[in-house]
Amino acid sequence: MSTITALPTESLTGTWVIDASHSEAGFTTRHAGIAKVRGSVAITEGTIVVGDDLTTSSVTAVLDPATIDTRDANRDGHLRSGDFFDTEAFPTWTFTSTSVVAQGGEYVLTGDLTIHGVTKTVELALEFNGTATDPFGNARAGFSATTKISRKDFGLTWNAALETGGFLVSDDVKVSLEISAIKQA
């Protein structure tokens, strides 16, 4: 698989809606300091606007933390509780970009991420995966993005000390996004 290093804004110019059924927000964190736990959260809506150049481009997205899925119902319930995300009080997470810049052959998407009622600026390494026309005639574009955040930065401080030292849940969370977006007429 080859990486597309140039973002062809001339062919992408326009508004794209994130296709939630073909997109994913995933995360990975350490459990007990020895194992990685992976999960996902549904992206419920989002828009990508590609301007004539990167300075006029933007991304917005809404995620639903009540959909958190780590393949363990008990853990998922705990994550939705007041110990962590308190999904009743904070039913959405949002991302609103503030800039997209090219750095060499790569792109950095900077924006405001709000989780648990706390907004922090994050930088995502952005990759453009190309375009395709689906069987229904829709123009689609694919993107991948990654970042690492501190859960404590978002007020997520619950933890348990381990007898062997350290803590049950790591502070660092790796976030990965796979996005398929449909161009709007």
Task: Provide a descriptive summary of the structure in words.
The chain has a single domain (9-183), classed as Lipocalin (Beta Barrel), CATH 2.40.128. It has two helices and nine strands, in the order H-E-E-E-E-H-E-E-E-E-E. The chain has helices at residues 9-12, 73-80, and strands at 14-18, 24-31, 35-50, 58-69, 93-103, 106-115, 118-133, 139-150, 172-183. Strands 1, 2, 3, 4, 5, 6, 7, 8 and 9 form a nine-stranded antiparallel sheet that branches. The model is unreliable at 1-6 (pLDDT under 50).
Index terms:
185 residues; mainly beta; Lipocalin; 2 helices; 6% helix; disordered N terminus
CATH level-4 homologous superfamily: Lipid/polyisoprenoid-binding, YceI-like
Question: Given the C-alpha coordinates, what overall shape results?
Answer: globular
Q: Report the structural category.
A: mainly beta
Kindly estimate the percentage of residues that lie in beta strands according to DSSP. Answer: over 45%
How are the elements arranged and paired?
Blueprint: H1 9-12, E1 14-18, E2 24-31, E3 35-50, E4 58-69, H2 73-80, E5 93-103, E6 106-115, E7 118-133, E8 139-150, E9 172-183
Antiparallel strand pairs: 1-3, 1-9, 2-3, 2-9, 3-4, 4-5, 5-6, 6-7, 7-8, 8-9
